Amino acid sequence: MAQLASVGPSREGDASADEPFDVEPPYTPDDGALSAVTSYDDRFLDRELSWLAYSRRVLGQAEDPSLPLLERVRFAAIFSSNLDEFFMVRVAGLKRRIAADVAVRAASGLMPREVLERIWSETRDQMERHARLFRGELVPLLAKEGIELVRWSDLDREEQKFCKKLFKERVFPVLTPLAVDPAHPFPYISGLSLNLAVLVRNPKTGKEHFARVKVPPIFSRFVPLGNQRFVPLEDVIGEHLKRLFPGMEVLEVHTFRVTRNEDLEVEEDDAENLLKALEKELLRRRFGPPVRLEVEESIAPQVLELLTDELGVSQDEVFRVDGLLDLVGLHSIADLPREDLKYPAFVPTTHRELAEVESAKPVDVFKATRRYDVLLHHPYDSFATSVQRFLEQAAADPQVLAIKQTLYRTSGDSPIIDALVDAAEAGKQVLVIVEIKARFDEEANIRWARKLEQAGCHVVYGLVGLKTHCKLAMVVRDEASSGAGIRRYTHIGTGNYNGKTARLYEDLGLLTTDEVIGEDVAHLFNNLSGYSRNPTYDRLLVAPDSVRSGLIERIHREIDHHRQGRPAGIRFKANSVVDEALIDALYLASQEGVPVEMLVRGICALRPGVPGLSENIRVRSVVGRFLEHSRVFWFDNGGSPSVWIGSADLMHRNLDRRVEVLVQVPSTDNVAQVADLLDLAFAPTTYAWELGPDGDWAPNQGTDQLQEVLIERQRRPRVVG
User: Active-site positions?
Assistant: First the structure.
């Protein structure tokens, strides 16, 4: 397990005394084997700053005038929520390391305090750009399209009467003003809540008082007034504060918002019941220390001073915003039924091997999978008519004896959960590995774990010290009547078993009856549910045992193929690339002349295009309508390509602290599918961001949009042979 450290007593703005956290061990390369690489001291980009570069690319989508207007609004909301999570997890972690005096120099050569200083500067710039974009461009453009985001002063008499009635009947009953004076200590401000800082005066004594009013999150962030006009909820509350403070004069009203450390740490070794331990930790999350204070630009100095003193935040952690705070609420505007301002509608289609042919009945997924290894590409291939149908048919099939499934994140009204419950109630053996430590989905996963247990499923919470992040489903079917005996049907994917995100995330998944893969997956499920330990597999690479070493071994094979004059090349697609050992292996391949192409959505610590080190490495990023989420690892392998897909990104947490699975794509047809996808992604005509040796990303000259090309291909009529 990762080393844990504790922090001494502190004020609210620092880490709490008993708060453990991960400290990445410093990377120590093998100087003998890597001497050609280790002479480049600055070969790694900083992971936190690389994430902020990804944040810039997302903001760039919101700024792109070629995108439909409401899609730009959605990207503005996504930018806000992404940055919130960055502060809650990454900035909080840096602050804790500094406070605990366990700061370790990063592989990039920067100390945590240096990284933090750069973060303050970069995030401040991005937030200012974001506020200018919203205020100066998106709001006027929306108004031209008949969607008006107005302030209280813009309301006409009828609209004000409507808001007054709304406040009186619905909002006022749930508001709780909290005063601050010797009898009332400064109230706890929950993370990410929107608040009003109110300064009032007693007209009899002339004494001024401070109070806090929380904007209730149970109501719409933007109050609909009719005719696609909306006013911020805090404006409505702010205009009616006299009802909350009768007999007092309201002098000042300012909005503010606090971001807190909301990452979780559970000492599993000491917890008899992981479920109870996690529930206790979820309660503690509400009281994490502040890491950012957002305030209106116009906030009164004395109010800001009170907030910073009481919350214990430094001036670096105060972000003044010219305009509305908390633009995550723009999702509700992006969801308006204005199809003329959105991407053209796209409906996923059923994979050609699973599609009905002149029949009203759904295809038998088991029969289709016996004939073909089916490589699914979501969201272009429908999740509902493939993975979901696979599990639903398994639940209803009397020949199915058992279903085994991992769940990391799933949707609120999950048909997958329903299918597993149905299977258990039908008397089938159902094993579910529920990862209740999936960040920010812990409470939902606890609910599903209990529901599954009550239905009779065997629920296991994975391995102590490791998150179970792999995406596996296995159905065991009795086919003795056909002479086949017991047959295993396996699904291995790159994305979660979540029907909602499967429409928004790009992912790959393999449905197969390959016996070797089936046996490997069966062994792995036994590892996860019992005491068996099987560190090697025939067609799988499994973290924390073999993903890093297996990929490095195959990188060195490419070097050998190149030396022998055989076809050699490496193409990776991942969300993040941070692991130094793998990056150094890719540098070695580049130095030997092996071409390396990387498609990385988010963080990339590899520095491409450095003469003598990485001039044979190209790194691209695609940010678009769908979130690029699949992980693909392609090796030319001397002319017989070896292709792997799975759940693992090239990060320490994935390779050392999670159970991750990569599976070798079994059939030549599937390999050709992956080749076609990668050829398109790396084509010179495909629009993408390119990473330079200085760590800066710049758009290329491509004109083809990867995702739009794939959508168009999916719309072509299916040819039935």
Answer: 469
